Amino acid sequence: MDTDRFDTTTLNEAESRFQAALLDSDVPALDAFLHEDVRFTGPDGSTIDKAADLAAHRGRTLVLSEVGEVSREVQVIDGVGVTRATLHLVGTFAGDKIEATMAYTRTWVPSADGWVIAAAHGSPVAP
Fold first, then answer.
1. pLDDT per position as a tens digit, 83-103
2. How would residue 3 be classed by pLDDT, with cut points 50, 70 and 90?
3. Which of 127, 126, 102 is nearest to 43 (CA)?
4. Distance between alpha carbon 78 and the CA centroid of its chain, in Å?
5. Into how many domains does the chain fold?
6. Range of the domain at 89
7. Is residue 41 within 8 Å of 121, Cβ to Cβ?
8. 3-state SS assignment for residue 33
9. Which CATH number does the domain housing residue 39 bear?
């Protein structure tokens, strides 16, 4: 694997493409960004895996009409990527309207196809 391509520039680009895939509910793109063993910890402390996350997008349980970035930090530490992004989200979840500002921390690892998300956590923050 060419480790030179795993720097803050390529991680920043991956985060941007991931956010675009969220907005578009682009399941194939989301699938490519998520490590097979990824776990996401939600605001209530519950944990979901890749299959559950993709099912929410595939089944249109989660539909985002806005993914507005408020802030972003990107780091690469010993070959592991970390992004912290505050996003303003608008959409629906299970038919209920949602509007929230969320802080996300994502841990990214190198793969043969580029950066992939190994772990993520989201917490609500004041807008």
1. 999 999 999 999 999 999 999
2. low
3. 102
4. 21
5. 1
6. 3-124
7. yes
8. helix
9. 3.10.450.50
